[in-house]
Amino acid sequence: MGDVSTAGLDGLAERLRVVAGAGNVITDPAELRTYECDGLTYHRATPGIVVLPDSAEQIAEIVRACAAEGVPYIARGSGTGLSGGALPRTDGVLIVTSRMRRILEIDIDDERAVVEPGVINLDVTKAVRPQGYYYAPDPSSQQICSIGGNVAENSGGAHCLKYGFTVNHVLACEVVTPDGEIVEITEAPGYDLLGAFVGSEGTLGITTKITVRLTRLPEKVETLLAAFDTIESAGEAVSAIISAGVVPAAIEMMDALSIEAAEAAVACNYPPGAGAVLIVELDGPAAEVDYQFAQVKELCAAAFEIRVAADDTERALIWRGRKSAFAAVGRISPDYIVQDGVIPRTALPEVLARIDELSGDSGVRVANVFHAGDGNLHPLVLFDDAVPGAGERAELVSGQILDLCIEHGGSITGEHGVGVDKAKHMPRMFTEEDLDTMQMVRCAFDPEGLCNPGKVYPTPRLCGEVPGRRTRIHPLVESGKADLF
Amino acid sequence: MAPVIDALAKACEVRPAELQDTVQGVAASYVAAPASVAEASELMRAAAEHRLAVVPRGAGTKLHWGAPPERCDLIVEMRRLGRLIEHASGDLVVKAEAGLPLRDLQEAVSGTRQQLALDALVPGATVGGALATATAGPRRLLYGSARDLLIGITVVRADGVVAHAGGKVVKNVAGYDLGKLFTGSRGTLGLIAEAAFRLHPLPQASAYVSATVADAGQALELTRALLRSSLVPSAIEVDGPDPITVTVLLEGFAGGVPARAEAARDLIGGQVADGPPDWWGRLPDGEVLAEVRAAPSKLTAIFQEAPAHVRGSAGRGVWHVGLPAGDAEQTLDRLRRHGSAVVLSAPDGTALDRWGSVPALPLMRRVKDQFDPEHRLSPGRFAGGI
Lengths: 485, 386
What we know:
Number of helices of chain B: 12
Helix content of chain A: 25-40%
Number of strands of chain B: 21
InterPro entries (chain B): FAD-bd_PCMH, FAD-bd_PCMH-like_sf, FAD-bd_PCMH_sub2, FAD-linked_Oxase-like_C, Oxid_FAD_bind_N
Structural class of chain B: alpha+beta
Largest interface: A-B, 91 and 80 residues
Strand content of chain B: 25-35%
Pfam family, one (chain B): FAD_binding_4
Shape of chain A: globular
Oligomer: heterodimer
Domain FAD-binding PCMH-type (chain B): 23-202
Distance between the termini of chain A: 10 Å
Keywords (chain B): FAD, Flavoprotein
Strand content of chain A: 15-25%
Protein name (chain B): FAD-binding oxidoreductase
Mean pLDDT of chain B: 96
Number of helices of chain A: 17
């Protein structure tokens, strides 16, 4: 991260000990290193200071102290993000919310819960399931990821095809702004600041309290696993299901290589010889689900085997292979890149063929796992870092896959976020004017550019400058607070 | 005057304003009608050069909403910017220019048995108008409102710069979601020029179950019973007070809807019908029209505080109330003890606190200052005089 100095942080650490308690401020180099990366371990930086506050008031004081010193700060939940969104800075403060894990209120009558940012996603569901409710967004990391992190990333999950993303399930956020004020933001009245904040990857402030919507548990859930000879015929089944007007809770696809990996890792026992498997899950009122499920089975007629989960245990077995897919790839390759791109669903056959070509031409193996219903691809690009040049070749193929997504009118990220990892790709998806306009929001919230700087946007906007005239060196760059990519 | 109209004419079709070209009684000087995003960009650039106050106008169905603008030099007439750009039916996505009437959009996508699951609360509204005012009808319960269905937006800034956010895929977290920021911004941040939405399949069947209840307390009980059921209603609306009616909409496959409708009738009583009651999805009458947002459990309080007409999404806690102008201020004060209440429309000259207290207003002002530093876009029409 360039030339950085930690000399100025000593006084700040003292101040933070007063705010959060001496035991909740970490400056020991060995301990600091445990926070050096999030779920994307490729990017690492040891934070200057780690602080573990216990309240919004403490966070507000920490933010004010950082602002007074001109020190950048980054919020971190459970550190499961996959784009380096919570990558620390050696010259900055990492504000970790893991002590703020209280569920403050559950209101079944109004179908909402109020939680602190460190609350684990799945714990919300666990708390309300006895009353027949759950929290719908279900990122794969839901057993460990935090709601605050979900808000920052606008996390999705396998079931967001039908139920939407975090932003569709958050009713209000209490936020510490980069001014160190505590404010509540909502969809209305006034500007929908909530809609802009959710998914802003921690660059507009730190959420300290989240009101989430609870969803009624469905009356019935049906899950099937369909095994196809080829990925093309699996893709055709997906198109047929969507064209029939069915909105499944989830449609997931895995190709032969990712099935092989899952088999090696968790012995998921998927039908042998499958070129691709589909997992289709339907939920809702029993009368609807029964009708649609019969239809889905017919539409999967090209499958050589269809398994239907008889109960929750069998459902878990079907999902096991899919949910383990990322980690499982470790069994067939020493290193891998998890890519996250989106294409219009109808472009699936063409894009998969092109990925196949890329893989063939480069000799880099690619395992494909995806949320097929919404065109969200997670190609796993395999390599062995011990082989000279292999990492670079894998990076190249991974980047070319994103190019394919952009070419087909898609997105460089469906759910993992831009973070530090994909900031360089933003100008391929958006014009300079687009990025400049988005950063006007940043300038409104964080004119000093201290709140998670260097993430999302490759070039920081100088707040207050006349748009389009970026001739001087950006003061943040000059002072070492931000880098140009 | 002549140089201004000449400058505007270089951008697009423009004419001097006529008598009817007013916004809440404030007369405009010019009306310009761009026919492309490029023209709209040129127009906004010319307007910026001449420091014109700009108010966009779609079908004009909600132009009387909000406070009168402090100034209005130029009305940007959006209806020539009204093409359907793309309907990717296999992807369940549609993209349109902002001036396209919602009705036309619905008609275009219905051929493939698809729909934009957004009720046109005000008949005749355009895509851009519905977005700028964040209007949504009964089915917000299941599908969310405009902001939840919008997946991409093109805006023209106050300085004429064209900017995009989102895209044309449903799942996308790249960059800030300007679409949500612009939804409900009432023309104060920029010109909404294009919008992309996710679509849903048209249901094969639908059924409405309506029950008349004794009082608001019973309406709340029935609403809760429906929410706690596994019936997944598309809408739960309550209309009243004379009488108070609870109506639930069930949509789905032909084989499933009748059984769900019967189950709903077992819960709330009343009648099953194929079509909606005549008040469904329309705004209530009243001199002062306000939108109230409160937790669903505030239903009884809202009926108590607003003696006139109340209608809305009981499941979501978004209400429209029609009030007599005379004591509207006091009624709004009382309603604001339970949630927010924003006046949408009021008779000319009515002095009212239209917004009540808006949390995070200082942040909103800073957003406005970034997007429209000269305060030329629909000035004074928004919260806090923005």
